[in-house]
């Protein structure tokens, strides 16, 4: 085994080891609105859920080099809501295009040929093409600080208010999600992505 002490590595080296090991990661493709109602669209792979009695998901969004929140995080902090879409393989290219760095008065939607639809509970519009999406409201916000008390990351806990599934994805009676039909895209490391491939089942021991 290769043994490395995290204290002996640079922040970039630690990040590389973590992001290259904790794979695959689902991708949250997030719509938010700025204070000026400009739509921001951006993908994030530090995206997960937690075992709770209420429908919560988490987004961890790193700060900019100047320690200011990224546009998505700032919009969520300001307006307390977002639409989170799951990304199928067929949407890999438009998703990647929205990772571009734009000015605050520009919308990533202008870079891609996708359609919008009005949300049910929140003001932020959703994209039509993704097969699964969640309307969410901010449940909690944790600014994560480094050892010098500088904020590194905004950890956003979002409560799902509305679920949307393509009819081919969800069995309405059993609420079973058809993963093969969803065909989710996963982030690996650097510019690399993957699909799920084959799955298998195992019985849990009693």
Automatic annotation (TrEMBL):
Q: Which UniProt keywords apply?
A: Flavoprotein, FMN
Segments forming domain Flavin reductase like: 23-172
The answer, when asked if RNA-binding is one of the entry's keywords, is: no
Which one of the record's GO molecular function terms can you name? oxidoreductase activity, acting on the CH-NH group of donors, NAD or NADP as acceptor
Pfam families on file? Flavin_Reduct
Q: What are its cofactors?
A: FMN
**Can you tell which superkingdom this protein's organism belongs to?**
Bacteria
Which family does the record assign?
Belongs to the flavoredoxin family.
UniProt protein name: Conserved protein domain typically associated with flavoprotein oxygenase, DIM6 NTAB family
């Amino acid at each position: 085994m290769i043994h490395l002490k995290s204290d002996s590595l640079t922040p970039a080296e630690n990040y590389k080891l973590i992001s290259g090991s904790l794979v695959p990661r689902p991708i949250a493709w997030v719509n938010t609105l700025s204070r000026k109602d400009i739509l921001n669209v951006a993908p994030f792979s530090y995206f997960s859920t937690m075992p709770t009695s209420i429908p919560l998901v988490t987004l961890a969004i790193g700060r900019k080099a100047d320690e200011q929140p990224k546009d998505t995080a700032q919009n969520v902090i300001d307006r307390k809501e977002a639409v989170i879409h799951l990304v199928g393989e067929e949407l890999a290219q438009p998703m990647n295009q929205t990772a571009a760095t734009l000015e605050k008065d520009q919308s990533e939607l202008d870079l891609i040929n996708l359609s919008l639809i009005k949300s049910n509970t929140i003001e932020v519009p959703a994209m039509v093409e993704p097969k699964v999406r969640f309307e969410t409201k901010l449940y909690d916000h944790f600014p994560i600080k480094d050892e010098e008390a500088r904020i590194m990351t905004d950890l956003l806990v979002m409560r799902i208010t509305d679920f949307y599934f393509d009819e081919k994805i969800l069995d309405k009676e059993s609420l079973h999600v058809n993963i093969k039909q969803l065909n989710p895209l996963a982030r690996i490391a650097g510019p690399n992505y993957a699909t799920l491939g084959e799955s298998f089942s195992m019985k849990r021991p009693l």
